[in-house]
Amino acid sequence: MSKVQGDYIMMLTRSLEENIAAARTLLPIDTSFDMITRDLLLGETRACLLGINGMCKTEVLQRIFSDLQNPEYMNDNVVKHLKQYMEARIGYAQVQLEGDWDKLLRQLLSGPAVLLVDGFDQALILDVRSYPARGISEPDAEPVLRGARDGFVETMLFNANLIRRRIRSPRLTFRLCSVGRDSKTDVALAYVDDLADPELVQQAADSLSRLQVSSLTMGAKSLEELLVKKRWYNPLPSMHLTERPDVACSYLMEGHVLIIVDNSPTVLILPSTVFQFTQSPDDYYSSPLVGSYFRLARFACIPASLVLMPLFLLITSRYPDISARYHLLDSADAGPVTVFFYVLAVEFILDLFKYSASHSASRFSGSLSIVGGLIIGDIAVELNWASVEVLFYAAVTLLATLSLTSTEFADGLRLYRLFLILVTGLGGLWGFVLGLVLVALSVATTPTYGGYSYLWPLYPFNWQALKTLLLRYPTFRAQPSRVWNRGRHPQSPEKNS
What we know:
Elements: E1 4-5, E2 8-9, H1 16-26, E3 35-42, E4 45-52, H2 58-68, H3 82-89, E5 95-98, H4 101-108, E6 113-117, E7 123-126, H5 156-166, E8 172-179, E9 185-192, H6 198-210, H7 220-227, E10 240-242, H8 245-252, E11 257-261, E12 267-270, H9 288-318, H10 320-325, H11 336-359, H12 362-382, H13 388-402, H14 407-444, H15 463-470
Antiparallel strand pairs: 1-2, 3-4, 4-6, 5-7, 6-7, 8-9, 9-11, 10-12, 11-12
């Protein structure tokens, strides 16, 4: 009889009937339409194949059935040595022996087929999987201006191939593990052995193995929240995600570690700092001078997106003399409460149009933007819900926000901006100053994985690293992996795990 732990059968037996009965107990073979079984005769030895319909290559299974049951290949009618028999018959497919039901089920539900043979307490795992997958295409979240237009997809094996195609190093390693008590989601750690921090690699592997979760419903995003636990006052992202293989490979060659999650087209990058969310790979497809200009312009967009509207509100509502001198607001009857209402109304309307356009079909998003910018903006001014000046500064703020490459980072800045608008409208200059202090504390206390500083290379300060982030250096001068420690704090590895 099979060994039982609770109600869970752990090991196979030499009886095919007992193994099939155990399989029917552990799997919904008779009730789930996608579970397939096939009785086979290997000469006079009975066998049974288990698989999942749609995840096994039909042509490979047909060839396996033909070769296993072909009497011309039989030296005798009874299978005596299972491993030798399979190596002689199906050398074209990857095969491994396993006698643990837990491991067999994990493999079976991941795509490979399982062959149970009478008289053996081990089953054969046949790697004949073929996942349903979409074609490799340009990622929508990170559009490509110049360069390769392939992007990650939902199949982890394809994503690993896209990375391996660019980095053909024998030191490139993919460590596989399973996360989720029910989902059993495949998760891979990718790193270059002599470039990545061994402590970071081991810490990430240990954290993944210790995760107690039923499933990764949202793929890489769910895993990010499990690895780094943030507080409500930290809206900025703690991990950098990318859908572009060229970006992922560049971080690998800088000593970073990637986390690839099956069923997710995004890859997590460890460790992450705030400056990673301001970088654009398109800078390296331009000349160093042009790339430096656009990089500095993006950095200038961060304070513009954050404080332009709060400063406008502060000056126009609390200092009318300065506002009149520089013609910031020409409405004579616009008091502090009115301007505050104008700013909040415009911020809400612009956010509404932004998200409406992002969730609508692409053929309608352009028309929606035109309607929002021309018709509704003009009507808002006529109804005295906004002013032309407020609309102008709000539009500049929106353009500065859209220039940032990371959508998550831009959304975090938008929450900071709304907070500054509220405290400035309620408290004036002191509210604005207090809001800036609280925002700075929120950014500084944003957690990252592995005990690294979120503000590196500002803290700890590293001028050589900061220069390569602010300016687009030539490729031969931008190879930091062997000299930068990336600001790791001497803290316990368990802190952010």
